[in-house]
Amino acid sequence: MAEPLFHRLVLIGIGHIGSSIARALHHAPGTVERLVICDASPAHLARAKELELGDEYVADPAEAVAGADGVILCTPVGSFAAIAEGIAPHLAPGCVLSDVGSTKQSVIRDVGPHVPEGVHFVPAHPLAGTEFSGPDAGLADLFKGRWCLISLPEGADEDAVEKIESLWAALGARTARMTAAHHDRVIAIVSHLPHLIAFTICGTADDLADETREEVLQFAASGFRDFTRIAASDPVMWRDIFINNKDALLEMFARFSEDAQSMARAVRWGDTGYIEDRINRSRKIRKSLIDIKQA
Amino acid sequence: MAEPLFHRLVLIGIGHIGSSIARALHHAPGTVERLVICDASPAHLARAKELELGDEYVADPAEAVAGADGVILCTPVGSFAAIAEGIAPHLAPGCVLSDVGSTKQSVIRDVGPHVPEGVHFVPAHPLAGTEFSGPDAGLADLFKGRWCLISLPEGADEDAVEKIESLWAALGARTARMTAAHHDRVIAIVSHLPHLIAFTICGTADDLADETREEVLQFAASGFRDFTRIAASDPVMWRDIFINNKDALLEMFARFSEDAQSMARAVRWGDTGYIEDRINRSRKIRKSLIDIKQA
């Protein structure tokens, strides 16, 4: 039998993404010899055990990472600095430390300084997820055909990077490398800004006078339903993402606001040519997504 | 056998909604004795015939409505005034004239003045639809469990209204009555504004520098994918809706803009409490939608 990629892999955080990794690993036997689940929430840890997601269940991150050759941070990005500081003295030489955070500059900023000599830091971000949270929300095929982006700090160890790339390949994902700054801009427009908008419009509807609000719910047509779906995502995770990708998110929001104001202006003044042109461009983007099988 | 609701029902426009009505009627035998399909596009009309959507296929609306006891306008709302003017002299006394337009004040304004004495005008709006267009996009179960809103002009004939309500019940929908002004506000927030936003953000992404744009497409995460889905909707139909529900749409857009600016400000200044609060409210709306089975 081939050597496993990791002898002892620790998932810190067994929410939607962590439990999806665990489930996907069950379908990739031989990839990991011993899977250790770690979560600060006793309820999450107990549920992970009931679901038999791993081989070992440990509440304390410092204890969990002892002797591990792989550690993946799967908690909200705002918690990374404290966790990295706490586990750093317990990481074995040669261990590969990775994450699944949706922001990459902040992760390199927060985790990087704590990584001990001889430990290999490989930040990663799988572009997958639903609006559901917690250990029960994991899906074995969540990463199938999706991208996992790798944003390397300076002087990253090539063998360690290839191990993380192989891990994501085993989970069904395709990998690509890009700088953290570039990653943060691309993800700001494709994921962070859409979430900010969805959270906002649900609040706007909620603020309407009482009678209308009930009808908003009752008569939610397809457009609004789609927005509420992504707006149902985890509050702490998204709060952390917004704060930690502030610059790119605010730049994309400014661009969007200008465009939305122009569209509103076209509606006010009946500029049908402008409106049709914008809608046609949107359709082309949708078509491109379908063509490259990302829709 | 029971008397049919309509002896000769004419669908003017055989796009997504028109062809869904035709298909749903095939599953509700006895509701309509003779279904007449009318469309200005020879290609759509030929395709409707190939799909055997109706009993008769007529290009000219004036010719199609002759002898009909029911007519439903299923074209973009911007075309209603001209169609109403053209068919008015050919409508038989007692005929019920209805529509499926997404704006109701504009429909009453545009169609109302053309309705001859003795013809009953019953504006309606089924809250259903996908991003697809044309006669092939029809779905027999599109209206199942969805709402159809009825907004009556002054002095509407109660028997005619009940006929239209029975028709939508036969198609699987629930009906509710509300004033046109109220309808237009509710639908502005649940449908029109989400579409305006989705069209806009796709354009914002398309305007990014070339290298990033390709990656935006390649790495489209779930948030953006959902937005492009609704942004793939028909340009002429949506142009007409925006222009014809301008006041309510611009008011809802102004409210949304204020809220989005406040969210951006919270992100800039790290106001985590505000961000979490807004996200939590969004989740509650989503939960309410699931509870009342509209999600």
UniProtKB/TrEMBL annotation, chains A, B:
Q: Which residues cross the membrane?
A: none
UniProt pathway: Amino-acid biosynthesis; L-tyrosine biosynthesis; (4-hydroxyphenyl)pyruvate from prephenate (NAD(+) route): step 1/1
* Keywords of the record: Amino-acid biosynthesis, Aromatic amino acid biosynthesis, NAD, Oxidoreductase, Tyrosine biosynthesis
Report the PROSITE patterns cross-referenced here.
Answer: PDH_ADH
- According to its UniProt record, the EC number is 1.3.1.12
What positions belong to coiled-coil segments?
A: none
Reactions mediated catalytically: prephenate + NAD(+) = 3-(4-hydroxyphenyl)pyruvate + CO2 + NADH
> What Gene3D superfamilies does the entry give?
6-phosphogluconate dehydrogenase C-terminal like domain (1.10.3660.10), NAD(P)-binding Rossmann-like Domain (3.40.50.720)
Alphabetical GO biological process terms:
tyrosine biosynthetic process
- Please give the InterPro entries that the UniProt record associates with this protein: 6-PGluconate_DH-like_C_sf, NAD(P)-bd_dom_sf, PDH_C, PDH_N, Preph/Arog_dehydrog, Prephen_DH
Please give the Gene Ontology molecular function terms for this protein: NAD+ binding; prephenate dehydrogenase (NAD+) activity; prephenate dehydrogenase (NADP+) activity
Q: Where's the Prephenate/arogenate dehydrogenase domain?
A: 7-295
Tell me yes or no: is Oxidoreductase among this UniProt entry's keywords: yes
Q: Which family does it belong to?
A: Belongs to the prephenate/arogenate dehydrogenase family.
**Which named protein is this?**
prephenate dehydrogenase
- Say which species the protein is native to: Acidocella aromatica
What lineage, starting at the top, does this entry show? Bacteria, Pseudomonadati, Pseudomonadota, Alphaproteobacteria, Acetobacterales
